[in-house]
Description:
The complex is a heterodimer.
Chain A: H1 2-16, E1 27-29, E2 42-53, H2 72-82, H3 87-98, H4 104-111, E3 114-116, E4 119-121, E5 144-145, E6 159-160, H5 171-176, H6 191-203, E7 207-213, E8 220-228, E9 245-248, E10 259-265, E11 268-279, E12 287-299, E13 305-314, H7 315-323, H8 326-333, H9 337-347, E14 350-352, E15 359-376, H10 378-383
Parallel strand pairs in A: 5-6, 9-15
Antiparallel strand pairs in A: 2-7, 2-15, 3-4, 7-8, 8-10, 10-11, 11-12, 12-13, 13-15, 14-15
Helix pairs in contact in A: 2-3, 7-9
Chain B: H1 2-5, H2 8-27, H3 33-40, E1 53-55, H4 58-69, H5 89-92, H6 100-117, H7 123-126, H8 139-154, H9 160-177, H10 180-191, H11 195-198, E2 199-201, E3 204-206, E4 214-216, H12 218-230, H13 236-244, H14 250-262, H15 266-277, H16 298-318, E5 331-334, H17 336-342, E6 346-348, E7 360-363, H18 377-382, H19 391-402, H20 417-420, H21 430-437, H22 441-454, E8 469-470, E9 473-474, E10 479-481, E11 484-486, H23 489-498, H24 500-515, H25 524-536, H26 541-550, E12 556-557, H27 559-562
Antiparallel strand pairs in B: 1-2, 3-4, 4-12, 5-7, 8-9, 10-11
Helix pairs in contact in B: 2-22, 3-25, 6-10, 8-9, 8-10, 9-10, 12-13, 12-15, 14-26, 19-22, 24-25, 24-26
Amino acid sequence: MLFLKFGEDAGTIRNAKRPISRFLVTTAVVLGFAGPSPAAAETRDFVVSWWMQAANSSKDDSDCPQGINPSLEELVRQQLLAVDIPKAEVENAISVLNGGAPPADVVDMIMYRGRHNGKPMHVYTFPSTVPDVPGMTRFNMGPEAYGFNLDGNSKTGYTEADTKEAGIDNGFWRATGCFISHRGSREKGPTHGIMHWDLQRDKQPAWAIRVVADDFTKDGDVTVSLYRAMERVWRDANGDVRRYSTFRIDPDKRWQSNTLKGKIKNGEVTVSGEQLHLLGDPYVLTDLDMNKAQFRFKLDADGNLEGVLGGYIPWITIFYEYGSSGFTTEFMTGVNLPAMYWALRKSADGSPDPKTGENTTISSAYRVAAVPAFLVTKDQNEARR
Amino acid sequence: MKRATRPMGRRWLTATLACGAVALTALLPISEMKHAFAAGAGLAASDQDAPVMRRLTPAQYKIVIRDVFGPGIEIGGRFEPWQRVGGLLEVGTGKVSLASTGFEQYDAIGRSIAAQALDPQRRDLIMPCKPARETAPDDACARQFLQAVGEQLYRRPLTDIELSTQVDLANEAGAKFKNFYSGLETSLASMFVQLQFLFRQETVAPVKGVPGRFDLDAYSKASRLSFFLWDASPDRRLLAAAASGKLNTEKGLNEEVERLLASPRVEDGMRSFFSDMFGFDSFDSLSKDPTLYPNFTRTVADDGREQTMRTLVDLLLARNGDYRDLYTTRRTFLTPVLGSMYRVPVTTNLPNGFPETRWAAHEYPANDPRAGILTQVSFVSLHSHPGRTSPTLRGKALREMILCQKVPDPPGNVSFTVVQDTSNPLYKTARERLTAHATEAMCTGCHKITDPMGLALENFDSDGVFRTAENGAALDTSGVLDGIQFTNAPGLGKAVRDNPATTRCLVNRMASYALGRGPAQTEGDWMAALQKAFAAKGYRVPDLMRVIAASPEFYQVSVSQSQ
């Protein structure tokens, strides 16, 4: 299968770049690790343990008045029939889909169900080769969602589920909130988001957060920085992210400008900034490229951080977050990826292309959880060696 | 059954008297120590009998195989269980036997080792000769190989009968398999299940002109010396010194002692001794409730054990420091994963994804609540329950392992309900629970000698992480050890450091470890001399090892032993 070969090749290349002998192995206990903040300020460091779409499904599915998105089987049937595959073959493919791991010819049929000038097209790379037809996408119309009023217009959008603020922009939730694997709540996250982040956090260098305030017990100014670490997260005995691990901040300048500023009030931190940019994992969420970011969180008694981060992100990267693992995603989660493509594209609400006028970004909200950690800069790390 | 029918009053009396004996032992002056040594470690009279044979420990077995055949031989299978006697597994090795199932295990392990050792890729490194033909036996080459390897495995030259038996076996099997190496492999595998290999046999010779006195023979001396200082079989030079008679002279013995002590391999000996003394074999079965202690993983346990080993090797060997400082030192070593337990940032520049097993030196600040090995993850986690701390277990471990004072087991009918219920709002802290528990008369005596020390370590949870409160109640970590009061764990460490039983216990344990038995009543003068020498040398452990290894008493056996 194509995606497996792709992964294998990439793995070989990646390993070839890292001969073990190139690395001098040393370890250091780092002193003065509090970071470059003013001496009087208090710094708290965290490593992200969970990062997933902030879902807010109603228990009775009333937020999806058109119903939950059709099953993969139903949509694949429609799409295969639409490209003139004989009904008997289509029904065979559907029956195989329901019976376990499908054979390669069925996988190929589904992967190449797109058409361009009559030729089969790979739908995970070229999702628009499956036309958007009525009923293929169903949007979340619930009254409440998590997120922020990003466009300043309080007359459009959801009501914030926690703060009850009006005008919340969350096109991401609108587009995907009626896919069965995206439904969830604050207490029970969406299946897809849990699965993806659980994979991603073991594969990518950790994402880290540094919070600096004069006094966390009082209202006042706060600065929040997001970093990419050089280590992956380590797990504890329960499989959760280990608390109080140490991470080196990746000195790459591309990840050094993720600074959000704001206030702490009644124990809740609210910050915003123009741009966030973090490299993710090439096979899951390639990168985080968010503008007009806003972040709202609290710190609990155990020192953990939990909150909602929102902003506009290129909608195509969300599609490829799912599309990169193509058939596996469809097969495992029942999400019809061309349908998701059209839902995202139609829900995009930011950064219109100057030439076409089509929106290139989509408002979004993520639930972010982080546990206490130690962050050290390159200089601090090397000072001890 | 006997215990169950014993009247409660007598059981209580027994426990109380035993606890009283512990306190008395701790207060004995040095002049009276020679009698206390035998009893102080809780050794029964039978422990004073010298072992004739000591079974190789799994660690020693592996080291021997590595030394003879080189690194890379995989040793699978499970070794026979062993038992702790007089506080030491090494003493227990002289008390264990070999069951048929254990024999089968050793046989399987031995066959695997023989196959690997004579594998075509490895055999050229260990064979001193080549057979005339590979498809047939070669008596001369087999003899040459088996003689050389046999001496290393049996720790002495093979007798003529032993050698000819092994060579005959190699020839017979070689002829049957039509392969010289298969025959040799069969013979070699058979040596791995011989008692001469599995057990450290000691033979004695009468001392000329001194009726009734026996000394170990030179090869037995070499084994005692090597296993004591290196935890390994004698190397070729030591065997040569035994063969030449050099070991039977004071000068020759001292030269070999100095050579072995100067080798980096003495670290193996030191690690083996302290691992035994501190009961670190218990790490193999250590686990914590992941719901309560999610950060405690197998890696933490392994690193915690190694942290203590590195701390003591650094202090006692690398810096030739005072043994007593082990209980107060602020110097240690950490890995990144231990850093998460100690709340200390520790980084490695290993490529992402490599195991986090590299070490960094660390020194606790002067006001840090941690000082000495009692506050390390190894001690506090090993002597706790899976779901809660245990001041009693910690105090008991301190008394028994570090001060050599036996604490009796609790009577069988004691109710631990109050101690175990950590959710009882009336007793939020372990101190409160133990106070309530100890109101029962049968419990009071023993808890008095364990809990005041263990409670000083309550700042360290069952997983070793620092805390200041339990169930919201602030912790009181004050305590007392043999009349010395303290307010916290570093204070306890200092009290242990300054307690005369601490160094006395080490001498007792090290001598027992070296001898493979508890010191006999007749060896009281020697033990007192060792204690004096240890003090005179500033409590330097390598010096104590030197004094023991060079002592004639270390190689002498009593009449009853030889009988």
